[in-house]
Amino acid sequence: MSHRRKGTLLWRLSLASLVGLALLPSGAQAFSKAIWGEASRNGVSQFPLYHRLGVRIYETRLDWSQVAPRRPRDGRNPSDRAYRWPASMAQTIRQAQRYHMQVLVQLMFTPRWANHGQARNVPPTTPAIFGNFAKAAARKYPHVHLWMIWGEPDRTPNFSLTRVVAPGAHLSAADKAAPHLYARLVDCAYGSLKAVSRHNLVLAGSTYTSGDIATKQWIENLRLPNGRPPRMDMYAHNPFGYRVPSLTASSSPFGEVQFSDLPDLARWIDANLRRPMPIFLSEYTIPTRADEEFPFWVDPTVAASWVTDALRLSRQWHRIFGLGWVHVYDDPPVSYGGLLTAQGKPKPDYYAFQHG
User: Fold this and answer.
1) pLDDT digits (tens, 9 = 90+) for 51-67
2) Burial level of 193, CB count in 10 A (0-12/13-18/19+)?
3) Contacts of 8 (CB under 8 A, 6+ apart)
4) CA–CA separation, 173 vs 98, rounded Å?
């Protein structure tokens, strides 16, 4: 995670940015709460807990580098002997179905055979082979219809081509290489996933509050070789932040896109991508003590108030498809952003999330 930088607020959001409804893709439902968390903890299924919290979408990841340690003969065939599909995924999907939850699968990271033997954060040299993996995954898990392409590719640790660029600066050809290649990965995956089922929805963009390339610059440079933006059904963003959730506040400094900057995000999406589309807030958390992940924290009662505000605003503004909480349990000293303590005691924001 990048550190947040304090500074003066730049300019006032236009009230007009709050107006309008996004057209949800066919088959998509209204706002849902989502969660990233363990399927089981100490041998106990966590899905009853998620059900009590009102979660409708369970988020998880398929690491391509682990699923395909060897190059498949036919990357589109999930039965290819090179694939090592995790047994836990099928169990997770069954548990989610039992509690009437959808499963969102994030496809991420690269096997060494697909990037000339480099680290897993180095994207594949040929986008089409990533599309083949997406097709195999969709065939392997036909009950999954929410697919997210990568996570925070605007950060170098997750996508090696990404370079640090000052917010608002002109991007050089080298700077544009990351969003351009990511756009090709998204478009290839989109074609593959839709070929398996028209009900598959593709979430992309996958930006972070303050990436190495600012969100606005990332969106503006999501371009295919023909100059068009990649195909996607929803834009995904992680709106972590140190400000009270609001949709009428001034813009955050340094190109940050916190929760309060979502109207800005919507305008950039509408101006640069194919059409207005829903926004999925994949990861959100509020630390209640100093930890190693974020350089800010708030009192537990304040965190509960912020959770209430974030969920209320997300439900009221129909542009938001869902809000996903990350860190179900505190994990000191790394994270104090859980809804429960490390010992499993609910914190005030647990009840705010449950009733929000």
Assistant:
1) 999 999 999 999 999 99
2) buried
3) 253
4) 49
Instruction: Name 161's Cβ contacts closer than 8 Å, sequence gap at least 6.
Output: 122, 123, 177, 178, 181
* Predicted local distance difference test score (pLDDT) of residue 109: 98
Does residue 225 register a pLDDT over 50? yes
Which residues of the chain form beta strands (DSSP E)? 32-36, 40-41, 44-45, 55-63, 102-108, 146-149, 201-208, 234-238, 279-284, 320-326
Q: Are 13 and 265 in contact (CB under 8 A)?
A: no
Distance CA 250, CA 261 (A): 8
Q: Which residue blocks in the chain are alpha helix, DSSP H?
A: 47-52, 64-67, 87-98, 127-140, 173-196, 215-220, 262-272, 300-316, 348-355
Q: How far apart are CA 228 and CA 272, in angstroms?
A: 9
Strands 55-63 and 40-41: unpaired
Q: Tens digits of per-residue pLDDT, 93-102?
A: 999 999 999 9
Neighbours of 282 (CB within 10 A): 28
Burial of 44: CB neighbours in 10 Å, binned 0-12, 13-18, 19+ = exposed
- Residue indicated by tokens 């097709």: 135
d(CA 244, CA 306): 6
pLDDT band, residue 275 (cuts 50/70/90): confident
pLDDT at 29: 54
pLDDT (average), residues 133-143: 98
Cα 96 to Cα 261: distance, rounded to the nearest angstrom: 32
Residue-wise pLDDT for 23-54, tens only, equals 344 444 589 999 999 999 999 999 999 999 99
| Angle in degrees, CA 159, 74, 145, rounded to 5 | 60
**Region of residue 319 (left: phi > 0; alpha: psi -120 to 50; beta: else):** alpha
Q: How many C-beta neighbours within 10 Å does residue 329 have?
A: 19
Tokens of 332: 């000191």
How many Cβ atoms from other residues are within 10 Å of residue 283's Cβ?
A: 25
